[in-house]
Protein backbone atom coordinates (compact mmCIF):
# COMPACT_ATOMS: atom_id res chain seq x y z
CA UNK A 1 0.00 0.00 0.00
CA UNK A 2 1.29 3.46 -0.86
CA UNK A 3 0.81 5.32 2.37
CA UNK A 4 4.24 6.24 3.60
CA UNK A 5 4.05 9.87 2.54
CA UNK A 6 0.54 10.25 3.93
CA UNK A 7 1.79 8.96 7.25
CA UNK A 8 4.62 11.52 7.25
CA UNK A 9 2.11 14.28 6.48
CA UNK A 10 -0.24 13.11 9.22
CA UNK A 11 2.64 12.94 11.71
CA UNK A 12 3.60 16.50 10.86
CA UNK A 13 0.06 17.72 11.45
CA UNK A 14 -0.12 15.85 14.74
CA UNK A 15 3.39 16.98 15.75
CA UNK A 16 4.56 13.39 16.08
CA UNK A 17 8.27 13.40 15.34
CA UNK A 18 9.80 10.74 13.11
CA UNK A 19 13.22 9.10 13.20
CA UNK A 20 14.98 7.23 10.41
CA UNK A 21 18.00 5.01 10.87
CA UNK A 22 20.13 5.08 7.73
CA UNK A 23 21.73 1.77 6.82
CA UNK A 24 24.55 1.92 4.31
CA UNK A 25 24.68 -1.45 2.50
CA UNK A 26 28.42 -0.96 1.98
CA UNK A 27 29.04 -0.98 5.69
CA UNK A 28 26.82 -3.87 6.65
CA UNK A 29 27.75 -7.49 7.02
CA UNK A 30 24.65 -9.55 6.24
CA UNK A 31 25.69 -11.94 9.00
CA UNK A 32 25.13 -9.22 11.61
CA UNK A 33 21.74 -8.00 10.41
CA UNK A 34 19.76 -9.92 13.04
CA UNK A 35 21.49 -8.08 15.89
CA UNK A 36 21.15 -4.78 14.05
CA UNK A 37 17.42 -5.33 13.63
CA UNK A 38 17.03 -6.25 17.28
CA UNK A 39 18.63 -2.92 18.19
CA UNK A 40 16.47 -1.02 15.70
CA UNK A 41 13.33 -2.67 17.09
CA UNK A 42 14.31 -1.50 20.59
CA UNK A 43 15.00 2.04 19.36
CA UNK A 44 12.53 4.89 18.76
CA UNK A 45 13.08 4.61 14.98
CA UNK A 46 9.98 4.95 12.82
CA UNK A 47 11.65 4.35 9.44
CA UNK A 48 14.66 2.57 7.98
CA UNK A 49 16.45 4.41 5.19
CA UNK A 50 18.75 2.42 2.93
CA UNK A 51 21.41 3.95 0.75
CA UNK A 52 24.87 5.32 0.40
CA UNK A 53 26.72 7.83 -1.67
CA UNK A 54 28.28 4.89 -3.52
CA UNK A 55 27.16 1.35 -2.99
CA UNK A 56 29.76 -1.02 -4.28
CA UNK A 57 28.33 -4.32 -3.14
CA UNK A 58 25.17 -6.00 -4.35
CA UNK A 59 23.36 -6.82 -1.17
CA UNK A 60 20.46 -4.34 -1.14
CA UNK A 61 17.75 -6.90 -2.04
CA UNK A 62 19.08 -9.46 0.43
CA UNK A 63 19.52 -6.84 3.12
CA UNK A 64 15.92 -5.66 2.81
CA UNK A 65 14.54 -9.19 2.70
CA UNK A 66 16.46 -9.99 5.87
CA UNK A 67 15.24 -6.84 7.61
CA UNK A 68 11.65 -7.59 6.67
CA UNK A 69 11.80 -10.99 8.35
CA UNK A 70 12.08 -9.38 11.77
CA UNK A 71 11.03 -5.75 11.46
CA UNK A 72 7.82 -3.99 10.48
CA UNK A 73 9.22 -0.49 9.97
CA UNK A 74 8.75 1.06 6.53
CA UNK A 75 11.86 0.73 4.39
CA UNK A 76 12.67 3.77 2.30
CA UNK A 77 15.44 3.89 -0.29
CA UNK A 78 17.75 6.88 -0.03
CA UNK A 79 19.75 6.32 -3.19
CA UNK A 80 22.96 7.91 -4.35
CA UNK A 81 22.26 6.66 -7.88
CA UNK A 82 19.77 4.50 -9.83
CA UNK A 83 21.69 1.28 -9.20
CA UNK A 84 20.45 1.40 -5.61
CA UNK A 85 16.79 0.83 -6.48
CA UNK A 86 15.28 -2.31 -5.01
CA UNK A 87 11.75 -3.57 -5.49
CA UNK A 88 11.93 -5.05 -2.00
CA UNK A 89 11.68 -1.64 -0.32
CA UNK A 90 8.43 0.20 0.35
CA UNK A 91 9.29 3.65 -0.97
CA UNK A 92 12.04 5.72 -2.50
CA UNK A 93 13.13 9.27 -1.81
CA UNK A 94 13.25 10.50 -5.40
CA UNK A 95 16.03 12.96 -4.69
CA UNK A 96 17.05 15.97 -6.70
CA UNK A 97 20.18 17.69 -5.42
CA UNK A 98 18.82 21.23 -5.69
CA UNK A 99 21.70 22.83 -3.79
CA UNK A 100 24.06 21.74 -6.56
CA UNK A 101 24.47 22.64 -10.19
CA UNK A 102 25.35 19.25 -11.59
CA UNK A 103 22.66 18.22 -14.11
CA UNK A 104 23.36 14.54 -13.46
CA UNK A 105 22.12 14.91 -9.88
CA UNK A 106 19.40 17.41 -10.75
CA UNK A 107 17.72 15.36 -13.48
CA UNK A 108 19.82 12.74 -15.32
CA UNK A 109 19.84 10.11 -12.55
CA UNK A 110 16.08 10.58 -12.22
CA UNK A 111 15.57 10.06 -15.97
CA UNK A 112 17.70 6.91 -15.86
CA UNK A 113 15.72 5.67 -12.84
CA UNK A 114 12.34 5.77 -14.59
CA UNK A 115 12.48 2.45 -16.48
CA UNK A 116 13.67 0.74 -13.31
CA UNK A 117 10.97 2.35 -11.17
CA UNK A 118 8.26 1.40 -13.68
CA UNK A 119 9.01 -2.25 -12.92
CA UNK A 120 8.55 -1.82 -9.18
CA UNK A 121 5.72 -1.00 -6.82
CA UNK A 122 7.76 1.52 -4.89
CA UNK A 123 6.02 4.61 -3.57
CA UNK A 124 7.93 7.48 -5.15
CA UNK A 125 8.39 10.52 -2.90
CA UNK A 126 9.98 13.49 -4.67
CA UNK A 127 12.46 15.18 -2.37
CA UNK A 128 14.36 18.44 -2.71
CA UNK A 129 17.78 17.55 -1.32
CA UNK A 130 19.86 20.47 -0.02
CA UNK A 131 23.48 20.02 1.02
CA UNK A 132 24.80 22.61 3.47
CA UNK A 133 28.52 23.17 4.06
CA UNK A 134 29.24 21.62 7.47
CA UNK A 135 32.99 21.42 7.96
CA UNK A 136 35.20 19.24 5.81
CA UNK A 137 34.02 17.73 2.54
CA UNK A 138 31.48 14.90 2.89
CA UNK A 139 30.61 12.02 0.59
CA UNK A 140 27.71 13.72 -1.19
CA UNK A 141 29.86 16.70 -2.17
CA UNK A 142 32.62 14.40 -3.40
CA UNK A 143 30.37 12.04 -5.33
CA UNK A 144 28.10 14.68 -6.85
CA UNK A 145 30.93 17.10 -7.59
CA UNK A 146 28.74 19.96 -6.39
CA UNK A 147 29.36 22.73 -3.89
CA UNK A 148 27.30 22.68 -0.70
CA UNK A 149 25.44 25.89 0.15
CA UNK A 150 27.20 28.36 2.42
CA UNK A 151 25.61 28.05 5.87
CA UNK A 152 25.85 31.78 6.44
CA UNK A 153 23.70 32.53 3.41
CA UNK A 154 20.47 31.62 5.15
CA UNK A 155 18.29 33.66 2.82
CA UNK A 156 19.57 31.71 -0.19
CA UNK A 157 19.11 28.41 1.64
CA UNK A 158 15.51 29.30 2.43
CA UNK A 159 14.90 30.37 -1.18
CA UNK A 160 16.31 27.04 -2.35
CA UNK A 161 13.95 25.13 -0.05
CA UNK A 162 11.01 27.25 -1.19
CA UNK A 163 11.94 26.74 -4.85
CA UNK A 164 12.03 23.00 -4.14
CA UNK A 165 8.54 23.20 -2.71
CA UNK A 166 7.24 25.29 -5.62
CA UNK A 167 8.69 22.74 -8.05
CA UNK A 168 6.35 20.21 -6.48
CA UNK A 169 8.66 18.29 -4.19
CA UNK A 170 6.83 16.57 -1.34
CA UNK A 171 9.69 16.76 1.13
CA UNK A 172 12.67 19.02 1.74
CA UNK A 173 15.82 17.40 3.14
CA UNK A 174 18.42 19.64 4.80
CA UNK A 175 21.63 17.61 4.71
CA UNK A 176 24.86 18.42 6.54
CA UNK A 177 26.47 15.31 5.01
CA UNK A 178 27.09 11.88 6.39
CA UNK A 179 29.53 12.13 9.29
CA UNK A 180 29.62 15.93 9.01
CA UNK A 181 31.72 17.86 11.51
CA UNK A 182 28.61 19.67 12.71
CA UNK A 183 24.87 19.30 12.13
CA UNK A 184 22.40 21.71 10.50
CA UNK A 185 22.11 24.70 12.89
CA UNK A 186 18.86 25.08 14.79
CA UNK A 187 18.21 28.60 13.47
CA UNK A 188 18.35 27.25 9.90
CA UNK A 189 15.94 24.42 10.70
CA UNK A 190 13.63 26.95 12.31
CA UNK A 191 13.74 29.38 9.38
CA UNK A 192 13.12 26.70 6.75
CA UNK A 193 10.46 24.76 8.67
CA UNK A 194 8.49 27.93 9.39
CA UNK A 195 8.51 29.01 5.77
CA UNK A 196 7.60 25.84 3.90
CA UNK A 197 4.40 23.80 4.13
CA UNK A 198 5.80 20.37 3.31
CA UNK A 199 7.55 18.13 5.86
CA UNK A 200 11.23 18.78 6.61
CA UNK A 201 13.88 16.07 6.95
CA UNK A 202 17.12 16.94 8.74
CA UNK A 203 20.26 14.81 8.82
CA UNK A 204 24.01 14.67 8.90
CA UNK A 205 26.43 15.04 11.80
CA UNK A 206 23.94 14.36 14.59
CA UNK A 207 25.85 12.39 17.18
CA UNK A 208 23.71 12.26 20.32
CA UNK A 209 20.12 12.12 21.52
CA UNK A 210 20.21 15.82 22.47
CA UNK A 211 21.07 16.60 18.84
CA UNK A 212 17.96 14.75 17.69
CA UNK A 213 15.80 16.59 20.21
CA UNK A 214 17.30 19.93 19.22
CA UNK A 215 16.41 19.30 15.57
CA UNK A 216 12.84 18.36 16.54
CA UNK A 217 12.47 21.42 18.78
CA UNK A 218 13.66 23.61 15.91
CA UNK A 219 11.04 22.23 13.53
CA UNK A 220 12.43 19.08 11.90
CA UNK A 221 9.67 16.57 11.18
CA UNK A 222 11.97 13.63 10.53
CA UNK A 223 15.57 13.21 11.68
CA UNK A 224 18.06 10.83 10.06
CA UNK A 225 20.79 9.05 12.05
CA UNK A 226 23.44 7.15 10.14
CA UNK A 227 27.04 7.26 11.33
CA UNK A 228 26.28 7.47 15.07
CA UNK A 229 24.30 4.20 14.96
CA UNK A 230 26.82 2.66 12.56
CA UNK A 231 29.58 3.37 15.08
CA UNK A 232 27.60 2.25 18.12
CA UNK A 233 24.60 -0.05 17.87
CA UNK A 234 23.82 0.83 21.49
CA UNK A 235 23.35 4.49 20.52
CA UNK A 236 19.70 4.48 21.57
CA UNK A 237 20.16 2.54 24.84
C1 LIG B 1 16.47 9.35 -7.84
C2 LIG B 1 17.66 8.53 -7.91
C3 LIG B 1 17.53 7.16 -8.40
C4 LIG B 1 18.87 8.96 -7.53
C5 LIG B 1 19.08 10.28 -6.94
C6 LIG B 1 20.47 10.71 -7.14
C7 LIG B 1 20.74 11.94 -6.35
C8 LIG B 1 20.17 13.20 -6.80
C9 LIG B 1 21.49 11.82 -5.21
C10 LIG B 1 21.84 12.95 -4.35
C11 LIG B 1 23.28 12.96 -3.99
C12 LIG B 1 23.78 11.73 -3.24
C13 LIG B 1 25.09 11.18 -3.68
C14 LIG B 1 23.11 11.22 -2.22
C15 LIG B 1 23.55 10.08 -1.39
C16 LIG B 1 22.80 10.11 -0.14
C17 LIG B 1 23.38 9.22 0.90
C18 LIG B 1 22.74 7.93 1.12
C19 LIG B 1 24.42 9.64 1.63
C20 LIG B 1 25.06 8.85 2.69
O1 LIG B 1 26.40 8.77 2.34
P1 LIG B 1 27.36 7.65 2.93
O2 LIG B 1 27.68 6.67 1.89
O3 LIG B 1 26.81 7.14 4.20
O4 LIG B 1 28.63 8.50 3.22
P2 LIG B 1 29.88 8.02 4.01
O5 LIG B 1 30.49 6.96 3.17
O6 LIG B 1 30.75 9.24 4.15
O7 LIG B 1 29.40 7.53 5.32
O1 LIG C 1 25.66 9.66 8.94
P1 LIG C 1 25.03 10.87 9.56
O2 LIG C 1 26.02 11.93 9.88
O3 LIG C 1 24.15 10.54 10.70
O4 LIG C 1 24.10 11.49 8.39
C1 LIG C 1 22.89 10.87 8.04
C2 LIG C 1 22.38 11.33 6.71
O5 LIG C 1 21.79 12.58 6.75
C3 LIG C 1 23.47 11.28 5.69
O6 LIG C 1 22.97 11.33 4.43
MG1 LIG D 1 27.57 6.83 6.06
UniProtKB/TrEMBL annotation:
It is an enzyme of class 2 (transferase). One of its GO terms (molecular function) is phosphoglycerol geranylgeranyltransferase activity. Mg(2+) binds at residues 24, 53. InterPro entries: GGGP/HepGP_synthase_sf, GGGP_HepGP_synthase, GGGP_synth, IGPS_HisA/HisF. It holds the Pfam family PcrB. NCBIfam families: GGGP, GGGP-family, PRK04169.1-2. Belongs to the GGGP/HepGP synthase family. Group II subfamily. Prenyltransferase that catalyzes the transfer of the geranylgeranyl moiety of geranylgeranyl diphosphate (GGPP) to the C3 hydroxyl of sn-glycerol-1-phosphate (G1P). Keywords: Lipid biosynthesis, Lipid metabolism, Magnesium, Metal-binding, Phospholipid biosynthesis, Phospholipid metabolism, Transferase. Its cofactor is Mg(2+). One of its GO terms (biological process) is glycerophospholipid biosynthetic process. Its EC number is 2.5.1.41. The lineage of its organism: Bacteria, Pseudomonadati, Bacteroidota, Flavobacteriia, Flavobacteriales. It comes from the Bacteria. This is Geranylgeranylglyceryl phosphate synthase. Sn-glycerol 1-phosphate binds at residues 173-179, 204-205, 226-227. GO terms for cellular component: cytoplasm. The keyword Lipid metabolism applies. It catalyses: sn-glycerol 1-phosphate + (2E,6E,10E)-geranylgeranyl diphosphate = sn-3-O-(geranylgeranyl)glycerol 1-phosphate + diphosphate. It comes from Flavobacterium franklandianum.
Amino acid sequence: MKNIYNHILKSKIENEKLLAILLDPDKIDLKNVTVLIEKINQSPATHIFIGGSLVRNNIIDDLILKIKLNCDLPIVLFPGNPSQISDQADAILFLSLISGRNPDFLIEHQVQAVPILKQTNLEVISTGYILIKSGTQTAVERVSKTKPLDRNNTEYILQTAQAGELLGNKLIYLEAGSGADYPIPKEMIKLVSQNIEIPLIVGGGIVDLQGIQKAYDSGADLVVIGTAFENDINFFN
